[in-house]
Structures are given as structure tokens and as C-alpha cells.
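Sequence, C-alpha cells reproduced for reference:
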Amino acid sequence: MGNLDPLREHRQLTRRYFCQLGSAAAAAWSVSPLAAAGAVADPQLQAAMARLEYLTPLARGRYIDKGKTGVLKLPPEKLREIGLVPETWSLEVLADTASTSVVERPLTRAQGNALDWKGLMKLADKHAVRFLHPCICVNGDDPFHTSVWEGVPLREILWLARPKANIRRVYYQSYHPKGAAPFQASLPLGCILETPPGQTPVVLAYKMNGELIAAARGGPARVVVPGAYGDKSIKWVQRIVLTNDFKANDSDAAHFNADVETAMKTKARFIHVPKEMTAGKPAALTGFALVGISGIDRVQYCVHPQHEPRPVDDPYWTKADWKDAAILPPPVNWGGGLPGGKLPANTSQMDPATGTPFEWPLRFTLAHWAALLPGLPAGTYDLCCRTIDRNGIAQPLPRPLPRTGANGIHRVTVVVQG
């Protein structure tokens, strides 16, 4: 939270920040579970909320090398040699020689016209977009990091190559050592060329949290696909192939048994849960909600004594005694190492006059939530959380199937001492 007093910042949520968001947000907060119960003033809840951090500092993010390129261990001179610093980076855009695709002006290193860093920055001067998005594995529970990204819509780069005919899909590939297959992902051409109003396009990103993306974090350029899991956001991108092939052919489909075409799901997870409680005394709960394609309406939690059997015909806990938690507003300080904790100018879906979101929560981002768990009798309990999406469907439905995005109900054990 920088040098600001986080407790003071959170105490201002119901005043200054909601006034900035407008009357609708203020009205929503006034009927939220925390406000209605006066729980927001509870010191332990204030402290738990103050520890929440929205954007991940770059040094604390998790970055993995799925393609086993070895990049994360390479010295600076080797990164320069293989084109993974801005000064030596370049990007090829060409037709798939194994298909009938036609590209009028392929960009290749052999021809000397591959897109270089100077060319990318020239496109950025005119087309740059900035947006919030987490990086989370399709099979993972928690995000590797949440960042504000800056990049150029990938369509602007494709048009430089003048795609002409017989193109159905776009493969984009990472750096790979000689003799090794590239790690790659793919998208239908239409998903790149056209974006629904109000949504963010697929980008070739060059900044995270206002800083150029280093090779250790997937740079100098990586694809980010809003609304998709991390398997689509390939690091160290150096080559794009336009093909008439209709198959996805993503590396993750074979290597990690994942559905590479699935959209991000809505789900809730705990962040702060007391492992032990004192009987009769309330406890603070906080967590995050991943806002997927169906949006989010509510976050809920439930408590179930472990000695009491649960219905065998209720695998999704639909019969549990669910209580509403409060979805917290966007932070005053976004964290992540941003100067003053403020988002860069012209961040998508933010009001330029106030720097606050036009709506909240934003789809394909995170939102924090909090609740004050009432005092419980001594015993051992299952504590669970879930989301209700904008269609009124409770997690893990409507897509509870494995390999299509991890969204099982988060369950933890809490011991209440007598």
C-alpha cells in the first residue's frame, strides 16, 4: 500500500471513494452485509482489509517457463543475443507454408523487414491500450499475478503483413532454442481483428505496472488475451503464423491436458481465514473473486460443523446455509509499485476525470470481498466460499468440469477453541 496509512484508506471507502463512484455504488454499499451490520468498523476486519493488495509487485509475481526454454536462467548477454531485450527483439508475421494462406507482405528477418522495437513503439504512439488483468492458469487456484498491462492491439500488427486470403487462425510462438519446438497458442482470426464494444482487444504487451516487461517476466513482448487463462498469454513472442488450419494446436492442449478454448470462470477464494478462533468471538474473512465471462452478482460463505454429515446428493453445497459477504470497492491505492498507487492515464474502463472504474467489479478482473464471521461454539468446521454470477448461477456451476478452468468451492478447516 506504499507509504499511505492503509487503515485510514479503508476507513474512507464509505465516504470519499463511494462518492467518487457515484450514487449507485453508494447505494449498493449502504445495503451490503458489512455496512448493514456495522461490521466495517470492527478492528480485526479493518486490519484484514488493510492487508489486501490489488496489483502484484513485479518482483513478487510468479513466472514460469512452460516451454522449457531456459530463458529465466539466461545472463543478460545471452538474452541480447537471442533477441529478448528491446534493442535486439523482432517479430516475424508470415503465412503458414503448410496451408493455403496468403499474406501479401510477410514480415521476416530474412527479408530484413521483421517488426522491431522501434516499429512497435511507433504503433504504440497511436494505438496503445492499458487494462487490468490477472494471469492465472486454467488448472490453477490462485493468480500468478495481477497487473495493469500496456500493449498494442495484435490486429494492428497483423495488418502490417497484409493478410489476404485463406486465413482462419493465428498461431503465435515463443522464443525456443535451436532444435526445440516453439511453445505456442492460437486464436481464431476474428477474435483478433474484431472486439465487441466495451471489451479490450488481444494485445502484444510491452509493459506491466507501468514498467517495460523484462525477459524474466515474459518480455520484451508477450501476448495477453483478455478473458482467457494464462495459457493464451504466451511469453517471449517472436513469431506469428497466419494459417488456414482450423485446429487450435496450442501447446497447453497436449502438455497440460487443458481446454485451451475455455473462457475465464467466475469463482471465489479465501485470502485471510483464521485457523483458530475463540468460541463466541467473531473473526474476519477476506478473499478475492475472479470475475469471469458471466460476471459476478454476489460472494457468499457458509460454515458447516464437520461432525454433522452432509447430504450425499449435494456435491456442490447448494443446500448449505450460505451468507452474503461484501464485495469491496476498487482500491484507492492500486499498489503494484505504481507511483502513488495510481493507474496510468487512459486505462480502459476507467473514468479519466476521477481515475475510478465506470462500473465495479469489472469483468475479467479481480475483486476483493470481506465478511465478519459470527462467533461460533467450540468445534471443528468446514468454511466455504462461492460466487453467484450475473445469471444467478452458483459456483462451481455452470462449468464444474475439470480442465476447463479450476473453480471448485474453496473449503478450509477452522478450529474454534472453547
User: Anything to note?
Assistant: The mean pLDDT is 90.
